[in-house]
Amino acid sequence: MAEGERDRPKYLPLRGEELLIGLVYGAGTETALSLRLLKDALHPYGYERRVIHLSNYFPAMLGDPDFRAATSTATRQLQEFGDLLRERCEEKAILAQLAIYLIAAKRQRDNPSSRTAWVVRSLRRPEEVEQLRRVYGPRFILVAVHTPEAIRQRNAEERWRRWAPTTGRYETEATRDIRRDELDPERDYGQRTRETFSLADFFVNASSEQILRRDIDRCVKLIFGWPFVPPTREEQAMYHAYTGALRSSEMGRQVGAAITTSDGDLVAVGTNDVPSGKGGLYWSPDHPDERDFAKQVPSDSNTLWKRRTARELLLRMADQQWIEPALYIRHSREQEARDELDVTEEQLDAFLAGVKGTRFADISEFGRAVHAEMDAITTAARLGHRISGSTLVCTTFPCHNCTRHIVAAGIRRVIYIYPYAKSLALDLHSDSIELDPEDAAAVRGKVIFEQFIGVAPRGYPQYFGFGQTPRSNNRGNPVREPDPATAQPRVLQESGTFSFGGPAVPATRIAQVERQIVRSFRQHVARTPEVQIPSPAKTEDEA
Q: Could you tell me which residues come within 8 angstroms of residue 292 by beta carbon, excluding any fewer than 6 positions away?
């Protein structure tokens, strides 16, 4: 019988006011401060913070009693453990299921207060976020803790210096840990922290304790519905970019961009879509509409031309006998007579699957759409607006083609949320752009590219919107902030609306789904011989 299976107490369902806060952060981030500040911020509202530290359970689940955290390779070992658990269970969201199992187990063992905030550290794949949102709905709040890479690099190097002083390769080893954490392209079940980070509800800045305390306190005030916590310039601009993205009909990802003055005034908004001969892009209900989806034969031009390019390449290689010509076919007698080769669609599919992850697979120059950043820049030019010295806010990190135009346009600052792995912006333009600087104020003569900080645009209307509800009393005085002793999170106050991405799921329904996931997790692990079901820690997991 697996560890923790004996004498299971009866399931204790989720309480009405429970919250689940997920943390996502890059390798080298100091997390103890974030946990302490979260505890301090939640305490006035009567919420007890309970931490679920997932990686603490990896060694026991994989039967490795010799793991030691106080070593230079601990980060790398835990990365490997997480990958192995996902791989062996053949489930990319297995660690989210582990979190759900541990929450349920601790609740039934300790019977905590209804006002409990479970803090899960840390999430490493988008599938984990999706699983937790499906189970807990808007009760699940994802917080991305951003620390500039220079600081994370120093922290990771310090670990190597402390525990492996003779290696002398601190920088190389630390960089390796950080890059694997961001994106491990070699493993299907590897880490995808960079993608997971972009799914957050709140982005907080951990470059200093003072700034982090400010950001976390503000997040908690917004969660509990303080009436006078207005948006920042960056949040407003990112929401413009986000709504711009929703206009896109591109068959690939939707991207939006907004250009603002340094004071936050909106100059132009852009989206990624097909240009119109009248200037600008097509709108609905323009007629005729020649966007890719509206053509008589809808198609993605970039995909079609990439396949044509691959066919040309393979046939030329066969013709030069760099590859075996017999691998390819002649479709017709005329081709046979002319001794011509051709490639089947299935062979093209196999070739393109084989080159996945290479620069050839990343070709994007054949798309008809104008990129969102370029649409914003050309819109400003078409309308006669000066953009030198402005800020460009975009939902996705700019590609290298857009980057060179951003630099040439005199834009001084770029703020983004989603990563774009194909971009060679930094490789090609390191002379003119500075990515994620530790001290942006000290940068001279370069365009600053930085991570967005604030409320994610998906939650902008919910956290900042009060609709027609007045925020003053009948004497004209502002309404007071909520009483911490009785304040409820806004996600629970508005259970009858479609705020926060959907209606707040009743606690009784969440309890049913949670119980199903716990049962599924036990069965899943029981079917995996090399994985054990863990027992929940008897003390706070951050210890």
A: 249, 250, 251, 274, 298, 299, 300, 301, 368, 369
